[in-house]
Design brief:
homodimer, Arc Repressor Mutant, subunit A, Rossmann fold, three-stranded antiparallel beta sheet, about 25% strand
C-alpha cells in the first residue's frame, strides 16, 4: 500500500480504534497498515488523544508493557450525558406510557440502537475501574442496553434465561422471588457461560423490588463469580427498601396507583448533581 | 470554540459520523462545530470518503436535497467478511459444541459484542437497498446480532416475545409450528411496536425447519407489514425443504445424528463464491 498522508491516516486511525472499544492496538500494527514510521504514528496518536478529549468523544489510553499500545474507551461529557437522559425522561413521562401495575412502556426506547448505545456508554464509563470480565443480564428487555454496555467495556455479554434450553447445553438453575408479585420463578444459565473467579457487572432495564437482581447475584454465587457492580436503565422511586443496594440507575420514575397524570420521570441524582457522585 | 486544524477535524469528523450509522449530518452542522468554511468541510468530507473506500471501512454517502448532507454506512471488504466468518466457522466446528437434537452451542459467540457487530455489518450491507424500517427478531438468542444489524442500518429493533407481558401493553398473539418438533407455540408482539405499511427485515440466529421464521412472516401479516428480507447467522444444510425461501445466511452446518465427529461448519456460498451472489 502507498504511503498515506496524515489527514488520511487520522481518519482511518480514528475509525479503526473507535470501532473496537477496549481492544489494545500496538503501534506496529498501524505502522504496517499505513507504511509510517513509529515517531510519525506516535504524533498521530497524540493528535487523536487531544481531539477526543477536546470534543468529549471518549478517551484513547496508552497501555504500557510488553502487550502495550493504545486502547479506545467510549465516553461522553457529563453535559452530553445529562442532555441525552433528560431528553429520554421527557419522552417517557407521557401518561399513555403508564401500564397496569405501575410499569412503564419502555420497549421502543430499549431497542433503538442509538439510544441503547448512548446508555451503554454512560453506564460503561461508571464501571471501567471495576474491571468486570463480563456483563450479565436476564432475558429479554435488558439485552440491548446490556450488549452496548458490554461493547463499550470490551467484554462479553452473558444472558440468563427463564428456563434451560436445548440450545444452551447443561445449565445451572436457581429459584428466585420476583420483587413485585412475590412469585417464585426460575433463572437458568449455561454451565459453560462463565468461570469461577470472574467478575460480573449486572445490567438490566427495570428495578422495582430488586428480586430479579437478587436472583442474578445468587446465580453468580453458584458459579463463584463476584458481582463488581449493578446498573439499571429505570428504577421506581418506591419501594425505598429493596432487595439490593449500591446500584447505578439512569432514570427514576414515580406514579400514584391508577393515576397516569401523576407520572414523573427524572434523571438519577448522580447525573444531574454537581457534587454528588451517587 | 477555536478554529480546528484539518488533522484534528478529520479525527473528530470520522468519530462523529461513524458513531451514528445512517444518520444524515448537514454540512452546516460540521461548519458550526469546527468553525470552518463550507468549502473546507467539503474537502474534509472528500478526504474521508476516499479513505473509507481505500481501507474498506464503510461508505460515506452524499445525500442530496433539502434534508441533504452526508451519511455513514458501515461496511467491510468481501475479503475481510470472508476472513471473519471463516474464522468463526473454524471455532464452531469443534465436536464439543454439538448438542442433542442436532443443535450447536453458539451462545458465547452470539453475545460477544465484537463478533455480533461484524455479523451485523456484513448482514446490513446486503439489505441497504431493501430499505427496511425496522429489524424483527424473536427472543432471545438472536437479539444481539439483530440489534447490531439494526444499528448498522440505522433503524429500530423490534422483539417478538413467547408470550405477552405486562411490560408491553396490549399485544397481538399468533400461533406457529416449530419446524423441528412440530409443536405449536405462541408469538406475541406489542400493538404499538410497528405500523401498517412498514417494511421488516427478519434477523435470527438459527434456521432449521423455518417454522419460527414462518411465524414471524405471519405475524408481520397481522400488522400489514411487508417482509423486505430474512437473514440468519447459521442454517442447517438439511432439511432442504424449508417453510421459507430467499434468506441470506452467514454459515451452514451439517452433522450426522449422534456423530459429533461428523460436524462440519462452513461459510455460506455467497460469502466465498467469486461469481455467485446467492
Amino acid at each position: 500500500m502507498d504511503r498515506t498522508r496524515r489527514n488520511e491516516r487520522m481518519a482511518a486511525l480514528t475509525k479503526i480504534v473507535t470501532a473496537s472499544p477496549n481492544r489494545i492496538f500496538t503501534l506496529s500494527y498501524f505502522c504496517n497498515l499505513f507504511g509510517a514510521a513509529k515517531s510519525t504514528m506516535s504524533e498521530d496518536i497524540d493528535i487523536l488523544q487531544d481531539v477526543l478529549a477536546r470534543f468529549e468523544l471518549g478517551r484513547l489510553d496508552t497501555v504500557t508493557g510488553a502487550a502495550g499500545g493504545v486502547r479506545f474507551r467510549p465516553g461522553m461529557g457529563k453535559t452530553e450525558a445529562r442532555r441525552i437522559i433528560t431528553g429520554l425522561c421527557e419522552e417517557l413521562a407521557h401518561p399513555s406510557r403508564l401500564l397496569p401495575g405501575g410499569f412503564l412502556y419502555l420497549s421502543d426506547m430499549l431497542s433503538t440502537p442509538s439510544v441503547v448505545r448512548s446508555m451503554g456508554v454512560i453506564l460503561a464509563e461508571q464501571f471501567y475501574e471495576a474491571a468486570p470480565d463480563f456483563v450479565l443480564t436476564m432475558e429479554t428487555k435488558g439485552i440491548p442496553v446490556a450488549l452496548m454496555t458490554a461493547d463499550a467495556l470490551g467484554v462479553p455479554l452473558v444472558i440468563a434465561r427463564h428456563s434451560s434450553n436445548v440450545y444452551e447445553g447443561s445449565a445451572v438453575n436457581i429459584n428466585y422471588v420476583t420483587g413485585s408479585a412475590d412469585r417464585i420463578e426460575t433463572m437458568s444459565l449455561s454451565r459453560r457461560a462463565v468461570h469461577a473467579g470472574q467478575r460480573a457487572l449486572i445490567v438490566d432495564d427495570f428495578l422495582k423490588g430488586g428480586g430479579t437482581a437478587r436472583g442474578m447475584i445468587d446465580l453468580m454465587g453458584e458459579f463463584s463469580v463476584q458481582v463488581a457492580g449493578m446498573a439499571f436503565v429505570m428504577a421506581t422511586a418506591e419501594p425505598a427498601h429493596r432487595r439490593i443496594h449500591g446500584e447505578k440507575t439512569l432514570m427514576v420514575m414515580d406514579a400514584k396507583p391508577d393515576d397516569p397524570a401523576s407520572l414523573v420521570v427524572r434523571p438519577a441524582d448522580w447525573l444531574i448533581g454537581e457534587t454528588s457522585d451517587k
